[in-house]
Amino acid sequence: MTWNNAVTTTKNGCTISLHVIPNSEQPQFPGPYNPWRNTIDITITANLHHNQGNQEIIITLAHFFSLNTQNITIIKGQKNRNKTIQLTTITKEKILQRLKDAYHEL
User: Fold this and answer.
1) Which of 23, 64, 86, 90 sits 20 to 30 Å CA-CA off 70?
2) Radius of gyration of the chain from its Cα atoms, rounded to whole angstroms
């Protein structure tokens, strides 16, 4: 499985493209890679209304990548299911390795 098209290196770190699936029983990341959208699925328990979902996404990603929540910012799609997330203090290689490790753990 490849996630290269969902993860991009930037001058401030990396961005990751996500497709959000709300109202789940529990948060889950990473979900399947969607080659048509070039996104990785993330499920969250919150509804997408009132910014609840955005905060849950940040917390879930911070936990998964062992980052501080201040190092994660939604830069596109704040009110949309498709989001672009900025991750600082982490490289694309580390992100891809962590995704690979997570899929081998399943």
Assistant:
1) 23
2) 13
First to last CA, the chain: 14
Euclidean distance between CA atoms 63 and 21, whole angstroms = 18
Q: Per-residue pLDDT tens for 13-71?
A: 999 999 999 999 999 999 999 999 999 999 999 987 767 799 999 999 999 999 999 99
CB contact at 8 A, 61 and 70? no
The sign of the CA dihedral 4, 40, 83, 91 is: negative
How many CA atoms does the CB half-sphere of 87 hold within 13 Å? 29
DSSP string spanning 48-66? SGGGHHHHHHHHHHHHHHT
In the chain the domains, ranked by start, together with CATH numbers, are 4-105 (3.30.1200.10)
- Give the C-alpha separation, 106 to 80, whole Å: 29
